[in-house]
Structure formats: C-alpha cells, structure tokens
Amino acid sequence: MSALTIRNVKKSFGNTHILKGINLSIEAGRFLTLVGPSGCGKSTLLNIIAGLESPSSGEILIGDRNVNQLSPKDRDIAMVFQSYALYPNMNVRKNILFGLEIRKVPKAEQAAIVDRIARMLQIENLLDRKPAQLSGGQRQRVAMGRALARDPKLFLFDEPLSNLDAKLRVSMRAEIKQLHQRLKTTIVYVTHDQIEAMTLGDYIAVLNNGEVQQFGTPDAIYNDPANRFVADFIGSPPMNFIPCEVVGSSSQGFGVKMTHEGGDFVLEASGDLKPWLGKHVVLGIRPEQITHVVTSRLDERGVSGHACPVHLCEPTGPDTLVTTSINQTKVLARVRPDTAGTPGQSMDLMFDMNKAVFFDPTTGERLRFQLLKAA
Amino acid sequence: MVESMPGVKQRPLMRAVVYVPLILTAIYFLLPLIVMLLTSVKTMDEIRAGNLLSLPATLTFEPWAKAWDKMGGTFTNSFMIVVPAVAISTAVGAFNGFVLTKWRFRGSELLFGMLLVGCFIPFQVILLPMARTLGLLGLAGTTGGLILVHVIYGLAFTTLFFRNFYVAVPDELVKAARIDGAGFFTIFWRIILPLSGPIIVVSVIWQFTQIWNDFLFGVVYSSGETQPITVALNNLVNTSTGVKEYNVDMAAALLAALPTLVVYILAGKHFVAGLTAGAVKG
C-alpha cells in the first residue's frame, strides 16, 4: 500500500505556475527526497503535502485517505523545519510536548513519551533548557524529537540540515538515516543538496521548473538520467557535456568525434547511433569515467586512451581533478594524484564509454539507443 | 566612548572641549525643570522678590498641597482614561499585527497601508466628525468616549509597532504550531504573545505618554467631572481672576508631568531595546 500519493498536483499564482502537474507515490516506510535548485517548487510541494498551502488542483492521499480538505493538524503528519522553529518561550520538554498537550494526551503518557524520545535522541540533559541555550545540532535534535513525539504516519523534513556547518551536517545526515532505518517511518525530505538526496533517499524526485524531471532510485538517477538537467544536477563535480558529431567508427560501430588542440580522435559508442549519423549530439560522461590509463583495461570494449592537453590540476586528496578542453568545452577528469600531468603539457586519459549517455543538443532529452552486439 | 577616542583621553584640553559643551547643554535643558522645582517650594513673597534661581529661604510644601487639592480629582480621571485606553489599544494592536503578518488574507497589505495613513491624520481634522459620532453613540462627555477616541487614534501606531515586530518572527513558528494542532487563538496566546515583551513595552510607553499628555481631545470631548489633568492644568494656570500663584502653578505642572516621567524612567531603557529588537532566535 502506498503511504503517500500525489496525483496531478498543480499550483499557480495568476500566471505563475509553481507546480505543473506533479505525480509521485511511495510505499510505507520509504524515504523520498525531493531535490532541485531553489525556486523549483519543492518546498511548495512539501507545504501542500502538509496542508499549509492548498493546491490549485490535484489530489494528496496519505495512506488511502484523501486529505485535500483536511487541515494540517488532522493529516497525521509531523514536520521538521529549516529554522527548527522551536517555540522560543518554552523549554525543550514543553516544545516536545506542545502537540501532545493540544491533543489532550494524558499526562502520564506524555511523560513516558518525553522520556523515550529524550533517550532516543540523547537530549535527556537538555530537557529544561530554552532553545536559545542550545547549539545548532542540539536544536535540530529537539526539532526531530518534537516531530517524533506524536508518532505520525508521515514525516516531512524541509531542508533540515541547511543551517548547520558542514561537519555537523554530515553527522546529522547519518543520524537521520539511522533513525529511519530503526523506526521504519515514511519520510519526505526536501533538500537542494544533491549529496543529501543521494545518501538519504530510497527514492529521489528531481524537480525543476515545477515539474518532476525524474523519479527513481538513487542508482537510476545517477547512472540513467532522464535528461541533461538531471545528469547535470546530480553528481559532484558534475557530468561533462561535450557537443560532438556522430561518425562511423573503425569497428563498424558508431563513435563521436573529439577535437582538441593536439588533434582528433573518435570515442566508440556502445549503442546503435545510426539515426544520428552525421548529426550533432551531446555526450555526457562523468569525471570518474575519464581517468588515468590503466593498461590492463585498454582492450575492454568502449575503453580507450587518448593524449589530452592539461589546463588545470585540482588535487582533492584521494583524486586529482584534471581540466582539459575537448570540442571547445571544458572537460573534467578524475585521476590518481601521482599520474596527474602538468598544466601546459599533455597526459594520456582513459575514456570509459560504457556508462556514457547522449542527449539531444536542442531539447536536452536523453537519446536512447539499442545496444550493439559485441563484434 | 572615551576608550575609543584615545586622543581625547590623553589630552586634558581635548577633554574639556568635549565635556564643557556637554555639561552646558545639560544645564540648559535642565534649567526649566530646576526653576519649576525651586518655584514650587517657595512662598509667594519670595517669588515676588524676583530671583528665579535662588534657593528657597523658607521651604514650603503648601503649594503642592494646594495643587493636589485642585487637581487630585483630575489626576484620577486621567488614570481612568489612560489605563484602559493603553491596555485596549496595545491588545488590539498586537492582535492586528499578528493577523497582518502571520494570517494574511487578500487585501491585508492594502488594509495595513490604510491603517498607516491613520498615523498622519492631524487631530484637528477629526474633531467635528468624532464629536458627532460620540454624540450618536451616547458617549459625549464621558470617560468611555475619551477612551474610545484614544483607542482609535492609537491603533494605527500600535498596529504598526506590532506588525513590524512580528514580521521578523519566523513564519515557520506558526507553521510548526499549526501542524502541532494549535488554532488561531492558541498560537497567538501561547506562541506569539510570550515573544512580544519588548514591543509591548514600546507600545505601552508610547501610548501612555501620548494619551496622558493629550490636551486637545481632552478639552473637546470631556465635561466637568471627566476632565483629564492636562485640561485642569490649563484651567488652573489660565485663570484670570485673583492673584496668580506661580508656586501652585509650578507644582500642578510638575504633578501633571510626573506619571510620564516615572514611566519613562522605569521602562525607558526597554523602549530603545524594544524598538531595535530584531528577529526572535528560535
């Protein structure tokens, strides 16, 4: 049974269309992340699920109940906000209990719930403090505690980690994931951070301009992007997009022509590119698919080495990012630090075309081809 | 301040250049108050002798007793007007501010704009229409009528204060409370109002000072027994019969000024803090 169904939800203000027909559905116990750049409508969608805003049209179902007409308090949801939104005049205990108190939960039960949650989130020693006396991470925990107190059907997270510093963000991210694994609750999590989206979600919905660009598992989103926007948005450093011409290759397959200041070469494609022969496409290839040469792999299909000019080297520690230029486009390669070349000279780079994808140069849609049988 | 100006600290001459004008200015501004105080405890004979600034040869509190005799009743009148008027206008202002920022509706910005205009309407303009309105309501010449006028006139300001304060309170607080199950009034009473301390102080001081010092509305809309103290003071000082008792006049004027002075001394430092208070840290 699906825990949350969003059916053709639209939201407009006059002629401004914030959401243009969203369809999503997740089963109980799953973690859905909504990711997209600012202004893509993800927070609006979350507010509509919460009932804080109403859709212009479309349906929201929580469980199998249509909640369109229900106010937020009757939807059996809890929400964690970016600014934590703790009530400043109440201490931590009262913050956690506020919702229960309003719902007239018996006192004894309230006390038991606070105990359980304080233990779970390790905030027992903070219960009598005011929010102003807490650090960012502690406030975040209390905000989660408040959401957990009512044990709702659906948890909504609105960019809950954006206000934390980088290190704390990573550890809180892991805690949220752990909490989800333990409690098996259904979560909808909004973020603009693609790494958060990838690490946390069972499913990811990538939004842009009020439309779902792609809805799928993190693996599908990363390796099988539906269009150039998704390919570009997910992954850091982002995928390389190289405009190029489709040509026939030596082995009766097809390839794409690459040109740089040192000369030309052809990268062999694994798909049947015949419909685009002689036309221009955009090759999408991730930096980790352009590496230093591993000799033993060179005879694999779709793998080839080519000398490329080095423009810039950026060591990150485990890898060094090497910038080169192909078809007048900046291209990033991820190489082992000791193999990185010197700017101004050229180095051999190995291109692995097996996970490469192609896009229509005008629409940005993914071009899908039949795989060619091995010769 | 001195620490941040090392040049001043080192050279006594520079110091004098800063402090002497400061002290002179302070004396200049304090002088009327000193003259009033001194005059109010002198006998009439001594006042007629003519030296405004001399210390009283014989200290007398009779003028104060006399002033209280004449004005004591209106002192109470003023309180009867000021306390409810301040309380009501502050409470309604807080409520307005809450609705205008956290419960917006179509046209709420326009409504706020129109309310703001209220801050700029001169008192004289509404004298006649308001007199007619009070007459129709049967409130002419009553304390209730004066309270109503002051509440209406004060609303524009108190709404402005609270609205600007609540704009800085994060909307997410209200969203969180709504999801927690709190309704309109619960959110106002349990979440928003407890945050409003600083701006309540501002509103109370502002309204108290305005209403206590008001003369025009008082003189127009009150009758004999409901007169506020400012009107009584005017009547006392402007009598053209009998001997002018300057010492009583001064004591009466000080009496009329005392409450606003006390309010400001007690809560003055919160006034500035409240006006400059920023977002509520959650």
UniProtKB/TrEMBL annotation, chain A:
> According to its UniProt record, what is one Pfam family this protein matches?
ABC_tran
Q: Name one GO cellular component term.
A: ATP-binding cassette (ABC) transporter complex, substrate-binding subunit-containing
InterPro entries referenced in this protein's UniProt entry, alphabetically: AAA+_ATPase, ABC_transporter-like_ATP-bd, ABC_transporter-like_CS, ABC_transpr_MalK-like, ABC_transpr_MalK/UgpC-like, Mo/tungstate-bd_C_term_dom, NA-bd_OB-fold, OB_MalK-like
* Residues of the ABC transporter domain: 4-234
One GO term of the biological process aspect: carbohydrate transport
Superkingdom as given in the UniProt entry: Bacteria
| This protein's UniProt keywords | ATP-binding, Nucleotide-binding, Transport
SMART domains xref list: AAA
The UniProt GO MF terms for this protein read:
ABC-type transporter activity; ATP binding; ATP hydrolysis activity
Q: What is this protein called?
A: sn-glycerol-3-phosphate ABC transporter ATP-binding protein UgpC
Which gene is the coding source of this polypeptide chain? ugpC
UniProtKB/TrEMBL annotation, chain B:
Name the UniProt key words of this record, in alphabetical order. Answer: Membrane, Transmembrane, Transmembrane helix, Transport
- Gene3D superfamilies to which the protein is assigned, alphabetical: MetI-like
Which family, according to UniProt?
Belongs to the binding-protein-dependent transport system permease family.
The alphabetized list of GO BP terms reads: transmembrane transport
Read off the PROSITE patterns from this record. ABC_TM1
Q: What is the lineage of its organism?
A: Bacteria, Pseudomonadati, Acidobacteriota, Holophagae, Acanthopleuribacterales
Cellular component terms, GO, for this chain's entry? plasma membrane
Cellular location(s): Cell membrane
Could you list the residue ranges that cross the membrane? 16-38, 78-98, 110-131, 143-166, 187-208, 250-267
Output the Pfam families linked to this UniProt entry.
BPD_transp_1
The membrane topology noted for this protein in its Swiss-Prot or TrEMBL record is:
Multi-pass membrane protein
Q: What is its main location?
A: membrane
Top-rank taxon of the source lineage equals: Bacteria
Which intervals hold domain ABC transmembrane type-1?
Answer: 75-267
Q: Which residues form the signal peptide?
A: none
Protein name per the record: Carbohydrate ABC transporter permease
Species this protein is from: Acanthopleuribacter pedis
Checking InterPro entries in the record gives:
MetI-like, MetI-like_sf
